[in-house]
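The protein record now logged underneath.
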Amino acid sequence: MKFTLRQLEFYIALAETLQISKAASRCHISQSSMTVSMRNLEEAVNAPLFIRHAKGIQLTPVGERFLNHARKILHDSRAAVEDLHQQPEAINGVVRIGIAETLSAYLLPNLWGDIAQRFPLLETAFHEAPASQLLQALRQGDLDFCLLLTSNISHDSTLEVETWIRSPRRLWTAIGHPLLSVPELRLKDVEKAPFLLLVTDDYPDVISDYWQSRGCHPDIHFRTNSFEAIRSLVAQGKGVTILSDLVYRPWALGGQRVIRRTIDDCITYMDVGIVKNVGQPLSPACLRLMDFLRQQTARLGEAR
């Protein structure tokens, strides 16, 4: 089995766009080169990665699984090269960071180890809480900055917000769900299915506005703050949900598979970034850590 990192970059682009022309443009190659590269990749892995049809292409179940491996391979290879050229930095002090519950689960385990390796003398104090509590602590000076879902909070003149990742939200269903066979999937189609609602990080307010602005109302059958409960229930066919790619995993704890699909008439994003007080002076250590987190968070986002 032989394939190149460049082929994996092409594959990820095609898997994310599902259009040869868009993927080729994104990778700055011709459409014919993209087509040949993907055929060669399928031969290399000895498995069909795409289903080709009149309206475009679709990932096969094997293609979905391979996409996650491809992202991880690219992320790890870039991290390995970068690690060879970077040495621990001698900055010290204490940096107090507020972090959203979602990011604590999906970003912090990777980020904390990277921080410790790069800044061995720096003490980082992470505080997880709902966004409203973190923003109050930030305004009171108890935190230096926050890592939040910037799409889920109210922006005002007292806050400086910088978004680092825009993660598209998609429909999650069980394998074989009827909505997967709808030619052009619309929010009105999703409205008819039992909906499973995640209730963490102000998501109910966000999704409620999302539906109401389009004249739709989800048929909510269950509410939970557990990502794994949502994932398992979706995989078992108990309902569907709409969540971002950042928190997507193709397999539930019981081994069943979760499928994503874009809702054609409604695209929305979960934005991730930093929030700090306008005009708040930050220490050199804090500013350096923010720069580092910006780079690492962007890479982790790409790996999803």
